[in-house]
Write a structure and sequence with these properties.
It is built from 13 helices and 25 strands. It has about 425 residues and is α+β, with helices and mostly antiparallel strands. It folds into 3 domains: about 5-150, Adenine-n6-DNA-methyltransferase TaqI, Chain A, domain 2 (Alpha-Beta Complex), CATH 3.90.220.20; about 155-240 and about 375-415, Bipartite methylase S protein (Helix Hairpins); about 245-375, DNA methylase specificity domains (Adenine-n6-DNA-methyltransferase TaqI, Chain A, domain 2, Alpha-Beta Complex). The strands form 8 sheets. A 5-stranded mixed β-sheet has the order 17-19-18-23-20, with no helix packed on it. A 4-stranded antiparallel β-sheet has the order 2-11-8-9. It is globular, with a radius of gyration of 25 Å. The mean pLDDT is about 95.
Length: about 425
């Protein structure tokens, strides 16, 4: 560390929770961000709410370049950096909202300090010793933390290096979201709404078939694979000639079983192990724990389903892995990854019922899972998979690049912020 780096407390260089909604505000509709909606600067599930129906914790006002960090269960890494928020964005009081004094600290630099593994461990240790219902910290714990800052120009250079990596990560995430939306829209059209069947029923000539196929964004040859009418089934009206079956008959299913706890390690020794959804990422789980005594294995590209609270979250196995009792692995017997992914994702409303039926911890057992129904036609599945397989391959490539970029960033981060690596 250079001699011109100076020591501060976070209190010296920021204001925390300085703005909250007060009586007389003019907001009627808000975009609300709860602590569970942001993890390691990855924002999801912002809710649009009538202010009269918003939860009482919807109080914190955020501005551009603010940092938010959850004061409950810091180990879950619910923190993020606010960029150009809408005027009606409100976040939970479960966050500490940190506003930087720009003349002393570069906001993104402070964000990276707060995202350090050592910072998370420090906050987690204090939270675990709290007497509240959940492991938590007071905002003052953050305020009292010490930080050593280089001169502002150096802070900006360091923040730029790390932000460049994060910007590429964010670009890949947005690309993957677009690719998934394209694949999901086609799945919904074919296997949920049965749009080709409905459209074909109105056609009486080849010319009309051509026009309808073009409108649906598919070839006439694909449209001709679909029937032009529906028939009754045990699940209601379905395309004529399609089958009703169960996940047991159509999918390869493995229920997880946890190995001995003494076999766990974080030293890359043995087989990567996922106990439950704790390690889930957006599409693929994050490597954390290994086991030398694997019991039940999932194969590469299997769908990993959380079968214990909360039931229904899914990821894709990026490699062979051991799965614990909190997970099941599933894949359609055709090995169609994308089709498998959306069939399971489309069952979410059924899985949600196991999270809300009054049990303390929701779960779904093997018998129930295997008995769930699915409607299908083999030749349509083959065509669907041919169309979306390139999309899921690109998603996988992008996710692998994200993991590489994250490892590079996480390696550089402590070295840059400690002065071990100079800029």
């Amino acid at each position: 560390m250079n001699s011109n780096w100076n020591k501060y407390t976070i209190r010296d260089i920021t204001e925390i929770n300085s703005e909250s909604l007060k009586k007389g505000h003019n907001l009627t509709i808000i975009e609300y961000l709860d602590t569970s909606s942001v993890t390691e600067n990855n924002f999801t599930n912002t809710e649009i709410l009538d202010i009269q129906k918003a939860p009482s914790r919807a109080k914190r006002i955020v501005r551009d370049k603010d940092i938010i960090i959850s004061t409950v269960r810091p180990n879950l890494k619910h923190y993020g950096f606010i960029k150009n928020p809408k005027d009606n964005l409100i976040v939970s009081t479960g966050f500490a909202v940190i506003k930087c004094k720009f003349e002393i600290v570069e906001p993104k630099y402070l964000y990276y300090f707060l995202s350090l593994t050592s910072t998370t461990k420090y906050l987690t240790t204090i939270a675990d010793g709290s007497t509240s219902t959940y492991p938590s910290i007071k905002a003052s714990v953050i305020s009292d933390m010490s930080i050593i800052l280089p001169p502002l120009p150096t802070q900006k250079k360091i923040a730029h290096i790390l932000s460049t990596l994060d910007d590429k990560i964010e670009l890949n995430r947005k690309m993957n979201q677009t690719l998934e939306e394209l694949a999901q829209a086609l799945f919904k059209s074919w296997f949920v709404d049965f749009d080709p069947v409905k459209a074909k029923a109105k056609c009486s000539s080849d010319e009309e078939l051509e026009a309808v196929a073009k409108e649906l964004g598919i070839s006439k040859e694909i449209l001709e694979l679909f029937p032009s009418e529906f028939e009754d089934s045990e699940l209601g009206m379905i395309p004529k000639g399609w089958s009703v079956s169960t996940l047991k008959n159509e999918f390869n299913i493995v229920m997880g079983q946890s190995p001995s706890g003494t076999s766990y390690n974080e030293n890359n020794d043995g087989t990567i192990f996922f106990q439950g959804r704790r390690d889930f990422g957006r599409y693929y789980p994050n490597e954390r724990v290994y086991t030398t005594e694997p019991k039940r294995l999932a194969n590469e590209d299997d769908i990993l389903l959380s079968v214990r609270a909360p039931v229904g979250d899914i990821n894709i196995a990026i490699q062979e892995c051991c799965i614990g009792r909190g997970l099941a692995s599933l894949k359609h017997k055709s090995n169609a990854v994308g089709y498998s992914y959306f069939v399971i994702k489309n069952l979410r409303k059924f899985f949600d019922s196991y999270n809300t039926e009054g049990t303390v911890f929701g779960s779904v057992n093997q018998k129930t899972l295997k008995s769930m129904n699915t409607i299908f036609d083999d030749k349509i599945i083959v065509k669907y998979n041919l169309l979306i397989e390139p999309l899921f391959l690109q998603i996988k490539n992008n996710e692998q690049e994200i993991q590489t970029l994250q490892k590079t960033r996480d390696t550089l981060l402590p070295k840059l912020l400690s002065g071990e690596v100079e800029v």
